[in-house]
Amino acid sequence: MMRRTVPAMATLSAVALALAACSSGTGSGGDDAGPDGPITLDYWAWGTAQQPMVDAWNAAHPDIQVKRTDAGGGTDSSAKLVTATRAGNAPDVAIVEYNTLPAMIVAGVAADISEHADGLEEEFAPGVWSQVTFDGATYGVPQDAGPQALTYNKARFDELGIEVPTTWEEFAEAAETVHEADPDSYITTFAPAEFGGFAGYAQQAGAEWWSVDGDTWTVDFDDDASVAVADYWQDLIDRDLVLAEPLLTPEWNAKVNQGEVLSWPAGLWAAGVLYGIAEESAGDWAMAPLPQWEEGDPAVGFQGGSAVVVTTSTEHAEAAAEFARWMGTADEASAAQIEQGQYPASLAGQELTLESDPPLLMPQQEDYWETAAEITRTTIPEISWGPNVNVASSAFQDAMSTAVTDGAPLRDVLTTTEDEVVEDMRTTGFEVTQK
Amino acid sequence: MSTATMSRPAGGRRLVADRPRPRPRGAILPTVVLVLGALYCLVPVVWVLVASTKSSSELFSTFTFLPGSGLVENLGDLFAYGDGQYAQWALNSLVFAGVGAVACTLVSTMAGYALAKYDFPGRQVVFYAILGGVLLPGITLAIPQYLLMSKIGLAGTYWSVLLPCLISPFGIFLARVYAVSAVPTETMEAARIDGANDTRVFVSVALPMMVPGMVTIFLLQFVGIWNNFLLPFIMLSDERMYPLTVGLYTLLSKGSGTPSLYTLAIIGSAVAIIPLVAMMLVLQRYWRLDLISGGLKG
Amino acid sequence: MSAVTDPPSLAYRRARRRWAAPYLFLLPAGVLFIAFLAIPICYALYLSFRGMRMAGGGPFGVRQETWVGLDNYVAAFTAPELLAGLGRLAIYGIIAVPLTLGLALTFALLLDLPRVRGARFARTAIFIPYAVPGVVATLLWGFLYLPSTSPGNWILERVGLDGVDVLHGGMLFPAVANIAVWGGVGFNMIILYTSLRGIPADVYEAARLDGASEWDIAYRIKIPLVAPALVLTGLFALIGTLQVYGEPTTLRPMTSEISQTWVPLMMIYRDAFTRDNLSLAAASSVALALGTLVVSVILLRLTQKRSFGES
Questions:
Q1: Is the ipTM of this complex over 0.85?
Q2: Which residue of A has its CA nearest to C26?
Q3: For FRET with C216, which of A282, A408, B4, C139 sits at 20 to 30 Å CA-CA?
Q4: C186-221 burial by CB neighbour count: b if 16+ within 10 A, else e?
Q5: Residue B77 is assigned to a structural domain of this protein
């Protein structure tokens, strides 16, 4: 029997190997061609803009070929990066969202690329650059930026006679008008799982959740600013003036399509997302600066946005850094990004947008990119994320969902989150003071 | 009692067919209940077939069970997505499930036969280890399996998904049950007296008798691997190696920068279940699931 | 199952090979069992006593793996999420397990009745969901649950009633359990049905001649005879319940009521991957695996005593 099984197993192995070979061959132009041939970099990235950018790079760089893999969206991808690094099979280069970058540094995923970063700083606005530098070292090249803005259904706003709100107070009044005029419609959604969105609103109000002095971290989620933001949304939820449900569910998509969700205060990428689910309402939408807590204060926070990092696992650090720099700064890369509705992180790329057509969702809004540039100039320069944003984000999401469901005070969510974050940091051995 | 139950399946069918049917009345309520049950099971399947004909705007705007106008376009989009990734996923699923189930059936059959037909030192230990394996939630093993696969450099390859599927304590368990009931010891003895060695006895005497049991193990394992989600989800990071389950899941959760591709996921689901349902229907009569119920008597 | 004894005429070499034969047959399974079950279990056990701790300066520091004793177990058992998750699991199981088995038994008994029309069609139809992967099944039911795509709500609205949101409030548990029931009924039904078909017809004939109703026959004869199959399907349903992961995970983006720690396996996944705390996840895995074993063994002992009496 044994003798018969062996050939059988060998045949099976051959089949599997052949498949593996043919599948890995489909994506890249050619695999490693020996020590003297071109090198191949593995690159993990999600989103529609990536493949055109990689294709442009490959066409221009025959010696350094890049093979892109979609390892899942932001959360899945960074979770996999950590395990893959520990397992020793991480890619050479990867996209990481700004707020998870510190966790990637602590987990030993992102490499210090300071020695390859000469002259890179001038390519970016200080607020963007601060997202990738920690303790004087550079850990990535910014690629896209997500300053928060208000993407709204202009057709419905006009129909109901609502002016675009410039302060959150006006926003609340508009919410009232909308819901009174049409009980099925809401001005916006408060999605309990949108940790990044809430963080942006709180930063705009002046919150600083993590700060570091020497080796000592200070964690403060329930400061006055954040509590005020929580209370603001609490009031709107209690008065049934906003939808309190997750985003991008079939349910929510249906409401957007029917014009029952009138706005989305989120990163600039919102236009692309909305176009994907409500293509037929293109032309109804427009973008305006995010409402403010104080009249006339121009500050806004970030939501989303990502950097290209070189991993500690790579054997081609220099080539990888060169690719990362190109992805963040080259005009060809920015052009591909803009076409897909992303907002480039580099100053040159943002310059380039001014010559581009507005996003597909609002083809009529001629001043879209000017407004975007205006908003970007006023983003908060220094935002520091802590080493365990992943813990904060999961704790926040669960606590916020429970609070919204059970009608518990939203402000308590901040305290719960802070406690979990501090406990996790203490267990790991960080020096932490809790405010 | 145990041997009596064991020998029953073989003759059972014939007896049932001969069963006289004296009661013409009283069958309406059972029929109604069964039809309701059938409807309950079919409605979601019908839904996905109907929904797959809808364009993305019709999906949320027209009545759920009203067919749409986008079938051809959806199919085109599905197979065009990511340079034909969907076809690759389907092929991967087929390889994982097909190769995995064939190999697992062979491994299980050999082991089950040994446990059923030989008395050897350590048999009891092996049997309890396998019983323990049946009761262990396989899913809790996925994380250590991933780390170990990484240590030997296999994580992220086809092997990392295929190899763990080859061992199925439950398959061994079933093979043992079937070997006990289907392979008479006397026939083995007769073959031995004729001069056959152990390998020969297994290959030419026992194996043909165990074919129906092997088909059952194969199908159970095939469906199990085909439907498996967590193991490939953890092991693989290259989307070109994903099986259908993970591929369809990624369509639904593309992160905040990309909207979920619901239309693609729906047409993808519809296309994915059609061949499997067809296979189930064709192979249904080869199933010997009475094996499972006979299996409790250790 | 009696021992195979060597006929006395066989040569010594032959006998030795006979001695080796069962081990050779078991070899592939044994190697795979050790590689993919035994070693991972031991490794999980080892990991559960380790942890990543700071070992160096700087605000971001460097973390290293070290021994942490029982820290992970303490953390796992004091985590309110684990207890809450087990509680939800219990509610889910109390709905899903009896419903799956009850429906499967009912359908199997009905199929086994003489003179039922459309039995073949019904059997096939009820079995079909088994071929639908859990991820896909959840997607289908998710759409049927959501108010804007739910056919039930469409009808309710047409007759002027308010729609029901089954993914919120008290309907959530039945809604999640329903997906498992839908997927599991057919498989269990076939197991029970084949067992019923295995019972020789003459067993009922006497009862029928005595004028017993089909109900009596089912209750007094058929159900006791398929009790072993019921126990086994019950055991699998129970193990399946403890392993619930895919359905709530796939439903999660559709409702904010399913947390990331809704059931214990989701918490294990979160700790291992989202929070990068493999050792904590390993400790929870070990605890959950032990718990499953204990529950299964207890269930087997109890039911075996009852349904097999002397055997």
A1: no
A2: A2
A3: B4
A4: bbbbbbbbbbbbbbebeebeeebeeebebeebbeeb
A5: yes
